[in-house]
Design goal:
The protein is α+β, with helices and mostly antiparallel strands. The protein is globular and about 75 Å long.
Length: 529
C-alpha cells in the first residue's frame, strides 16, 4: 500500500500531465505484477462492488473519535470528501500494516459477504495500522469514489512510453474483458485476450469552433457542409467478418448497439467508418436525453431496443478493404463512402450524413439557426481537399454550433469543491419560479472567475440558512444566467425538465429575483430546442 500511496501523492500534487505520466511509469517499473493489474483495474473502472456501506464507516469513525454528529458533519463540509474527513479525524495508528495493493484488494473482495461485525473489526484494524494518506486510499478503495485526476488516456500514454506498444492497442487491451485473477500483466498489455488486428480503430479527426467570418474561409465551392449531430461520435470497424464499435472516448461499445452490428453485416466489403450514433425513430433524430437511456448497459433488452431505437449517420471512411485512405482528399473519401452505401440495401436507421446544398456563405446562417428544429447542434464545415487528420488541425474542419439557450435562475444551494477548491463554494444549484415557490432546474460549477467564486463563497458563509453535510441552503437572492445546449422533458427531475450541459453564463447582479424565469417559460424553450 505504501508504494501505491506514494503514487497517489505524486499524482495529486501536480496538474501537469507529463508529471503524472512519469509517476505512473515509475510505479509500473517497480510494483509487483498483481499490483500493476489492480492499478489498471482501479483507474479504468474495473473495481469490485463496495464491500462496506459508507454510512457504517461514518458511524464507526464517530464512535472511535467520540465526536458528535454535528461536529463530524461540519468537518465533512469543510473537507468536502468523506474518505479524507475520516482519515484526518482518526487517531494516530497504533501499529504498522504492510500489505501490498493486491493483498488489500483481495481482503476487500473477501469482506463483501461477511457480517457487519466482521466488517467493523476488519476496518478498525486497518485504520489502526495505516498512516493518514494510506487510510485515505483505503477509505476510497472501499467507498467506490476513486477519482484522482488520471484519465484512461493518461494511463495508456504512460504504458505506451514504458513499453513502446501502440496506444490504441493498449487502450483496447485494458478496457476489454479480462479477469484480474487469470491474466498476467504482460499478457494484458500485449493483448493476449483480444484480436486487436481486426478491431484496431484510428484516432479521430476533430474540429475547432469556427473563429472567423464565413467569407474568410475562401470560396464556398471548396467546402462541404453537414449537420452537426448531438449523439456519440463513433467508428465502426468491419474486418474479416468481425464488427467493432468504438466511441470517441476510446471505449469499445459494440455490445451496447446490437442493431448497428446487425446492419453492418449487410456489407460485403471491409471498412472503418466515422459517424454519429443517434437515437432515431420514424426517421427522425431524437434528443441526446433519449440516447442516454441506451448508454453503459450491460444488457440491452428487447423493450429498450423498441423504446429507444438507435441509428448511425456516416460522415467519413478511413479504411477500405484493408487500405488506409485517410490521406485521400475528403471529397474523394466521400465518393467512396457513397459508393459503399449504394452497394447494399440498408435499413432506414443507417444513413449517410446529409450534405447541405448552398451556393453562397450567407445562405448558411438561416440553416444553422434552424438546426434545433431537427435536434442538430449546428453545422460542420469541411474543406473538400482535407485529409483525415489525427486529432485537431486548425483550418480544415470547423464546427459552427448554434448559440446556447439561456434562462435566468436563482441560486438556492451551494456546495464546497474538493481538493484545492475545498475551502470555497464552487458547486451551485439553481431554481426558477413555479407558482409561489421555487423548483430546481440545474446544477452548474463552471463559468465563474476565481474572484467571483471567492465573492460568492463569502456571501454563502453569511447567508446560509440550512446545512446538509457539505451543502448549504442559501437565501434565494443571487441571480445567474444559465446557458445550456438543449432541453427535454424528464420524469427524473422535480421540475419536469432536464438541461443539456448547463453552465453559468454570467452573474446577473443587475436582475432582481422576481424577474427570474418561470418553469412555464423554461418549458416553452422545448419547442425551440
Amino acid at each position: 500500500m505504501k508504494l501505491f500511496s506514494n503514487l497517489i501523492s505524486a499524482i495529486e500534487i501536480t496538474n501537469k500531465t507529463n508529471a503524472k505520466i512519469e509517476a505512473l511509469m515509475e510505479y509500473f517499473k517497480i510494483a509487483p505484477d498483481k499490483d500493476k493489474l489492480w492499478l489498471i483495474a482501479l483507474f479504468t473502472g474495473k473495481r469490485p462492488s463496495r464491500p462496506v456501506k459508507t454510512t457504517l464507516m461514518r458511524e464507526w469513525c464517530m464512535e472511535i473519535t467520540k465526536l458528535p454528529e454535528w461536529l463530524f458533519l461540519e468537518s465533512y463540509s469543510t473537507v468536502g470528501d468523506l474518505g479524507e474527513t475520516m482519515a484526518l479525524l482518526l487517531p494516530t495508528p497504533t501499529h504498522k500494516l504492510d500489505l501490498s495493493l493486491h493483498e488489500w484488494m483481495s481482503e476487500l473482495k473477501a469482506l463483501k459477504p461477511k457480517s457487519d461485525e466482521d466488517k467493523k473489526a476488519f476496518v478498525l484494524e486497518a485504520w489502526s495500522g495505516l498512516d493518514q494518506q494510506e487510510r485515505l486510499i483505503f477509505n476510497k478503495l472501499i467507498g467506490g469514489s476513486f477519482r484522482i485526476g488520471v484519465s484512461k488516456k493518461t494511463l495508456v500514454n504512460a504504458l505506451t512510453k514504458l513499453t513502446s506498444i501502440d496506444a490504441n492497442q493498449l487502450m483496447h487491451s485494458i478496457i476489454g474483458n479480462w479477469d484480474i485473477d487469470s491474466i498476467s500483466f504482460e499478457e494484458l498489455i500485449h493483448g493476449k485476450h483480444i484480436n486487436y488486428d481486426n478491431s484496431k480503430p484510428y484516432p479521430f479527426c476533430l474540429a475547432y469552433a469556427l473563429e472567423k467570418e464565413l467569407p474568410e474561409l475562401g470560396e464556398p465551392e471548396d467546402w462541404i457542409v453537414e449537420q452537426k449531430w448531438d449523439g456519440i461520435r463513433g467508428q465502426i470497424v468491419k474486418r474479416n467478418n468481425e464488427i467493432y464499435i468504438w466511441s470517441r472516448g476510446e471505449e469499445l461499445v459494440t455490445k451496447q448497439f446490437p442493431e448497428l452490428v446487425e446492419a453492418m453485416q449487410n456489407f460485403k466489403d471491409d471498412f472503418v467508418i466515422d459517424g454519429e450514433i443517434l437515437a432515431m425513430k420514424d426517421n427522425d433524430v431524437l434528443l441526446f436525453n433519449d440516447l442516454q437511456k441506451r448508454l453503459n448497459r450491460k444488457n440491452v433488452t428487447k423493450k429498450l431496443l423498441e423504446e429507444v431505437p438507435v441509428g448511425f449517420k456516416a460522415y467519413d471512411i478511413l479504411e477500405y478493404n484493408g487500405d488506409d485512405i485517410r490521406d485521400v482528399a475528403f471529397i474523394d473519401r466521400r465518393k467512396r463512402l457513397e459508393s459503399l452505401f449504394n452497394s447494399v440495401a440498408l435499413p432506414e436507421h443507417i444513413k449517410l450524413s446529409f450534405l447541405v446544398d448552398f451556393k453562397k456563405w450567407n445562405e448558411l446562417h438561416t440553416i444553422r439557426d434552424n438546426s434545433r428544429a431537427i435536434n442538430s447542434e449546428g453545422l460542420m464545415l469541411k474543406m473538400k481537399q482535407s485529409p483525415y487528420h489525427t486529432g485537431r488541425k486548425k483550418g480544415d474542419w470547423w464546427k459552427w454550433k448554434v448559440d446556447p439557450l439561456t434562462i435566468d435562475a436563482v441560486m438556492i444551494y451551494a456546495q464546497k469543491g474538493s481538493g484545492r477548491r475545498s475551502s470555497k463554494y464552487t458547486d451551485y444549484t439553481f431554481a426558477v419560479k413555479k407558482d409561489d415557490a421555487l423548483v430546481t432546474v440545474a446544477k452548474a460549477y463552471s463559468g465563474l472567475t476565481d474572484k467571483e467564486i471567492t465573492e460568492i463563497s463569502q456571501w454563502v458563509n453569511k447567508n446560509a440558512i440550512e446545512r446538509f453535510g457539505p451543502v448549504r441552503t442559501v437565501k434565494p437572492e443571487l441571480v445567474f444566467e444559465i446557458a445550456f445546449e438543449g432541453i427535454a422533458l424528464s420524469n427524473r427531475h422535480k421540475s419536469g425538465v432536464a438541461l443539456r450541459f448547463p453552465r453559468i453564463a454570467r452573474w446577473r447582479k443587475d436582475k432582481p429575483v422576481d424577474e427570474i424565469d418561470t418553469i412555464e417559460s423554461v418549458k416553452a424553450l422545448i419547442n425551440t430546442n
